[in-house]
Amino acid sequence: MLAEGRILLLLSDWYFRLGPRTHDQWNHALRTVVAPNTDRFAAVTVTDAAMPTAGLNVTELGVAGPREAERRLLARLGTPYSAAPATAAEPTGPRFPRDQPRLWGGVPRRNIRFTGREGALSETYHHLNGAQASAAVLRLLGMSGVGKTQTAAKYVYRFGSEYSRVARRALANSDPGRPTDTRLWPRYAELVPHLEASGSYVSTHGAVQRLVLNCLRYLFLSGEYRTGLQIAERVTPKWHELLGPTHPRVWDLAYHHVNLLRSVGRYAEAEQLDRAAADHLRAERGEHDLDLLRAVTGLAADLRALARYDEALDLQQSVLREYTDLVGEQDSRTLGALNNLAVSYRVLGRYTEALEMDRRALEARRERLRPRHNWTLFSEINYAWDLRLLGRYEEAISIQEPSVEVHRDVMVPDNPQTLRAEHNLAMCLYRQGDRTRGVTLLGDVLERCERVLGDTDSLTLMAASSYGCMQREHGDLDLARRLGERVLDRYREMLGPRPPVRRRQLRQPRAGTAGRGGAAVVGDAGRRGAGHHDRRGRRAAPMDAGHRPQRHRDPQPDGRPGGRRRAEPQDQPPDRRGPVPPAPVGALVPGGARGRPARAARPAAGREGGGGGAERALRHPRLPARAHHLGPLPGQAVLGLREPRALAPPPGRAGRRFAPPPGPGPAVG
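Below the sequence we write its predicted structure tokens.
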């Protein structure tokens, strides 16, 4: 007011938001100063926000384009206007506030019928504008159909001119790109819930499709099988429609889909999909194709899960040869094929050959990958598993015990791979002679498998079989029977009444053994020990967890075991889903002594839950595992999942010998 001439007021809501004065205070000041001097003030605005305008004749510049705004401003100041010549060059300098941002993509069309949400829009605007540039992020959460997308679109059309770039859900930019890196799993865990809401399932953008595939990979490796399967089953028909059934990304999607099917025990479905993919790729591209090799690798894993071991071995040998020729011996895919060939040898009882292959894979992964990489850790499990099967318990423990600690740190305690490592350590400890620690650890593994993976997961069933065998050996026949029967029921539900095991691979128990004291039990409770006899005085052969009944034979001079074939799955994570199920016929548990019919199992103490309110059948009574004490001497009390009782022969069972737990000896499984 001290200088002469006109005064131009450019009203900005940014200025008023920054200052400490309220709108009422500004309006009072304008009335006091402007009213006596209206001829000296010219006020213009380019915003829709409410601002103090008392006593001002405000000209709105934002309702038209930049040329009209310039004409109105000059007219308000009494200055002649002459239009500048148009130019096709890219405009430079500040963008007119009402102009659409130069980057504008993926925004839905304006929905004029969508009304309301004014409070949410205002809150969103102030939150984003009041935050620091690096922290200006807002996530809209809510049930499907409540209007999250429409609210975001309405915000964009109202305030989009204040931003330099507007695009729908640049979610792909948040993809870390390495789902095998456990350090990045928290980022993927944040992205997965937003895939469907962001439209990623139907996006044609390559980066978004890669994000979906990486999220499926993360869900597979982290053990979130059912969530991953739900996403894969929703995306598959959409991508078939968008891309066609033979697009490369559709093959990638099918690869993740069958891995997840195998993970939840749907082996027959996985085999059908893998075989169809392999047949199509072989006919289209020939034998020397990497996508074909990946499909054949999955097919071999399916065949192992269906107990078709010879077919799986032939396929896995050819896959290893092809990978070696195409990408070299040290490529990660070749090392994965080497790992899976070791699995095929292991399920056929060829443990020495499996050990050598797992040793090579472990050394290569330790050299090429970091020591704490999940594939390196997986090879440590396999190598220790082979050592255990060969009876080299101390060596197995020296590898598996520190590996378990790294698993807990890198992959969290409840990851399926961590649980598998702990299961193997428990078996090693038990076979080495540390019975109490082995049972305690295995009880904890079983409880977490049930809680995290569910009662029907293959790892849960293997842990339950092992735990039941340990309880049988230490005298808790009722608990062993309940666990064995329920494992058997679960396998019948999963595989049907006829197990997928060929006769020449599985010797049936002799007639009359079921329901007797010498019946076979799936598990790895121990080897044949001195004094461990059936009712006819013959030595009773215990079973390894997850294996079929077999004759015990001492190892051959070259170190190869003489036992019959068994299932011992440890497929590479990209190619397997869960262990090969033990044959249901091997899940028999001891019945009554001296040939009497087996007693009916007591109802399991468990919790209700699961689909349809079905009983969580494998729940054992919740006594803390560390309270177990399995004494090594006859007559010592057993404190465990039943009432304490002695291991001495009970009344009416004279002549039946209750032997102490056997010590370490040659491996039988």
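The first helix runs from residue 13 to 18.
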